Amino acid sequence: MLQSLEIEHGSMWLLLDQTKEHLDNGNIEEAKEKMNEFMRILLEHDGAEEGSVYQQLDTMPDEDQANLILEEVKLANPPKEWKCKAIR
């Protein structure tokens, strides 16, 4: 389940990049199509997170939640082209 949600995060990121590119090029209709696709994925994604991931986390002690999150951070890899805007 978590792997599927992570893939959706990447898909949403890509769709937002594509939307911005269309907007920058004045392609409003294409940008709207990308945003509609983004919203479709987001609504399903939020339902999956709210219906399972967050509920499962709420059953865990705070220390276990923190350790799980720290482990995920250690394993996380940012998208290939990602750059922190704060240090550009």
Describe, in plain words, how this protein is organized in 3D.
- The structure is a single chain.
- With 88 residues, this protein is mostly helical.
- The protein has 3 helices and no strands.
- The chain has helices at 2-24, 28-58, 62-75.
- It is flat.
> What percent of the residues sit in helical stretches (DSSP H or I)?
over 70%
How many strands in all?
A: 0
The major sheet is characterized as: none
Radius of gyration (Å):
16 Å
The H-and-E topology, N to C, reads as HHH
Number of helices, where a helix is a run of at least 4 consecutive DSSP H or I residues: 3
Percent of residues in beta strands: under 5%
Q: Which overall shape is indicated by the principal axes computed on the Cα atoms?
A: flat
Q: How far from one another are the termini?
A: 34 Å
> Which structural class should the secondary elements be placed in?
mainly alpha
Which secondary structure elements does this structure contain, and how are they paired or packed?
Blueprint: H1 2-24, H2 28-58, H3 62-75
